[in-house]
Design goal:
Helix content: 55-70%
Number of strands: 10
Structural class: alpha+beta
Shape: elongated
Distance between the termini: 45 Å
Largest sheet: 8 strands, antiparallel, barrel
Number of helices: 17
Radius of gyration: 39 Å
Strand order of the largest sheet: 1-2-3-6-7-8-9-10
Strand content: 5-15%
Length: 454
Amino acid sequence: MTLWILALAVLGLFAALGLALGAVRNLAFFIGTIVAGLVAIPLGSALTGLIKMAGLKNPLWIYLLPPGIAYLLVILVFLGVGFALQFKLAMIYKYKRDDVANQQWLRMDRHVGASIGLLTGVVIFFAISKLIYAGGYLTAQVTTEEGNNPAWIKFMSAARHDMRAVGFDRAMASLDKTPRAFYLGADILGLIYHNPVVQGRLSNYPFFLSLGQRPEFQEMGADKEYNDLIFGKASISAIIDHTRTQGILGNAEILNAIMGVDLKDLRTYLETGKSPKYDEEKLLGFWVLDKEAVVFNVRKTKLDIKPAELMKLRKTIDAMPEVTLLATLDNKTYAKSIGGTPVPTETTVVVPAAPTMTQPNDPRVTSRYGPLARNAPPRPAPTTVVVVTPPPPPIAQLSGEGTWKTSTNTSMGDYVLTIPDTKGTNLTFIGKVVENELFVSMPNRPTLIFYKSE
């Protein structure tokens, strides 16, 4: 229904406009609409930079406004030419022809203008329908039943639904030149918007792992108000207008990084949890330390371990923080430790020296050598003793940013990881991925075992 109301409104408006403007001006307008439709997208791409410089950050408007502005500019140019020609012809019939010819001209001008205006309305309707075909596909992905969307989103979505219901979308598909990436992006946006589970999966996509470590996204994840908007299916306009979203949209570096994502692979990952493009690199992703698996592996590999030693090892592991390890596409690792017992550090203790035996003052010495005479040796100054730090724990305490690379000696392991400990000392490990477990080992230390977090 919305689509037909739009069609009647557009055709009626341009027929009336044609009757008022006349044949020549409407003919120029008609030619201008056709030319504008051909050059709007190329000219619009040149205007995109100016739109961004003007401060507009809404990605939908950045996509739609430049071609729309280019379309209007071209039409105005042709309409200006039409007005000039109409004025010259009107002057000729008014001053160089008789009254009968002038009246015939005016009558023809109005009637033919109405016909051309109706034809122009058809072209404009198809141009608007083309916009609805693409833009309505996107707005339909983020429309909710609660009805908390702006009026323009409701209109676009309703018109796109009507277009599909009557089969008009098949006609528009043959005219549509919108890049396929736009529709893939719309599908992904709708999938994320309506599925909270998928929103959590998005942060684990290998391409976004490095971006997730930026402070903008770290703060975003900790913002309860913003997360309530996302997970609560708030209006898409409210999400876009939020300061967190505006901060991302205003950061050219982040936007350029996001634009490099493989949309087809991302959609497959969101739907299935598997990435055909990145699944071959087993190390990528979040890994969580499995303390029980570490103890079990020690018992399995060291059969002669004594109960006391095993008990000590278990206490050490239980006192460790919860460790997460992240491996990203740019060959970086991020180790984070939360909780646990702090590792002992160096301490200093001031130990006073033993008191020295002194003799009482002898008045004979004082009378002979004066009041400054020293009857006893001075008491020595306190001695400072530095207590040596306890030996390092048998389990490596990891924290900080490191690197990883593929191992050249596959018989030892799949990867070489350089990860700092809590003191900032870089430790080199050999890593091997077996199914969903990561074994990280170094000489004279128990092997750390991580499981992959989905």
